[in-house]
């Protein structure tokens, strides 16, 4: 039997525990996802999650959310280094006194589902030259409304403005993914079908983007090429057939979950005879998908891919297919508009 996600070892990248939902979000792992689960102790994480330059409490929050704090810190450093380009924020240095301190509010401009608030804090952490105070008004996975404060930060004004764009780039991007995923999850609510992501992610941001999918109530597919196998059309051509390709993967990597892609109904019986437990139906219509579900008759789980749209999601779900693979969650979702507003504290004091 192929191991369930709960039995698979954790990978450091994109770590999360499926029994710990993200603030009520219904996301998590799907079949053929090796991003993690289960009963590991802290040593299985590979690195002590506190062995980084972030505040230990923030590092713990990131680790509890299934993220590697060291990797998040690396992303934050890369974003800031790219923005400063070995220099300084010339506008901010010229206009803001060095000793000035301000409070800024990260505020939603649109309705949506938020993701990446602790990652935004990590960006601030690598920029701020002194300690900063945060007030958390929302959590990742929350549905938010326009004008809603998400996070308030008090620190040196120069540091806050220098970190602003990098923090917002990540926060808006991840919240956009979570919002798009939530739309699919809401559309599929009440069916037995779940939406899953793919590996069509931004280089260097896969763990964060897949985390955002979980915040939106979606499931993660495999995190990398190494934690699960997906036999696709080019593998089939190279191996000489879909069943032969499956046999080769199972022989070489017996403990790895295997999913097999088919694009014709007549390919189903040969792979079922080999014992495959997860089949990807590539570019099947809803009618063809319904026929495939009937032919398989519960002998394997089925995932639809291609020709999928939010408007047509319920039609596919009605066939009884287990998963919808939607690459657009991570490669085409628009951002959720979030801004940073400095408080006019002189006006507040005078009022």
Automatic annotation (TrEMBL):
GO terms under cellular component: cytoplasm
Keywords for this protein: Glycosyltransferase, Pyridine nucleotide biosynthesis, Transferase
Protein name: Nicotinate-nucleotide pyrophosphorylase [carboxylating]
Protein purpose: Involved in the catabolism of quinolinic acid (QA).
Span of domain Quinolinate phosphoribosyl transferase C-terminal: 177-341
PANTHER family: NICOTINATE-NUCLEOTIDE PYROPHOSPHORYLASE [CARBOXYLATING]
GO BP annotation list: NAD+ biosynthetic process; quinolinate catabolic process
Enzyme Commission identifier(s): 2.4.2.19
Domain of life: Bacteria
Catalytic reaction list: nicotinate beta-D-ribonucleotide + CO2 + diphosphate = quinolinate + 5-phospho-alpha-D-ribose 1-diphosphate + 2 H(+)
């Amino acid at each position: 039997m192929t191991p369930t996600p709960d039995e698979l070892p954790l990978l450091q990248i994109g770590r999360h525990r499926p029994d710990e939902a993200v603030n009520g979000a219904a996301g998590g792992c799907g079949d053929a996802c090796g991003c993690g689960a289960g009963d590991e102790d802290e040593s299985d994480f590979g690195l002590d999650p506190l062995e980084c330059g972030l505040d230990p409490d923030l590092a713990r929050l990131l680790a509890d959310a299934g993220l590697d704090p060291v990797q998040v810190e690396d992303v934050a450093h890369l974003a800031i280094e790219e923005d400063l380009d070995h220099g300084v924020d010339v506008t901010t240095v010229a206009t803001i006194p060095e000793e000035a301190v301000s409070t800024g509010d990260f505020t939603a401009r649109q309705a949506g589902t938020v993701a990446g608030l602790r990652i935004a804090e990590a960006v601030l952490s690598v920029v701020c030259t002194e300690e900063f105070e945060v007030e958390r008004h929302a959590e990742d996975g929350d549905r938010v409304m326009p004008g809603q404060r998400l996070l308030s930060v008090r620190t040196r004004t120069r540091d806050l403005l220098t970190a602003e764009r990098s923090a917002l780039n990540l926060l808006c991007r991840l919240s956009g993914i979570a919002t798009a995923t939530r739309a699919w999850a809401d559309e599929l609510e009440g069916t037995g079908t779940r939406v899953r992501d793919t590996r069509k992610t931004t280089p260097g941001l896969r763990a964060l983007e897949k985390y955002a999918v979980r915040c939106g109530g979606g499931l993660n597919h495999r995190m990398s090429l190494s934690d699960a196998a997906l036999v696709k059309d080019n593998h089939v051509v190279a191996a000489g057939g879909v069943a032969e390709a499956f046999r080769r993967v199972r022989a070489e990597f017996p403990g790895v979950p295997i999913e097999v892609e088919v694009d014709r109904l007549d390919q189903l019986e040969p792979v079922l005879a080999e014992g495959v437990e997860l089949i990807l139906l590539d570019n099947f219509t809803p009618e063809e998908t319904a026929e495939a579900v009937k032919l398989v008759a519960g002998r394997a789980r089925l995932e639809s891919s291609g020709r999928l749209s939010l408007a047509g999601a319920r039609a596919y779900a009605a066939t009884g297919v287990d998963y919808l693979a939607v690459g657009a969650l991570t490669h085409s979702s628009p951002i959720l508009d979030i801004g940073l507003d400095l408080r006019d504290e002189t006006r507040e004091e005078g009022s």
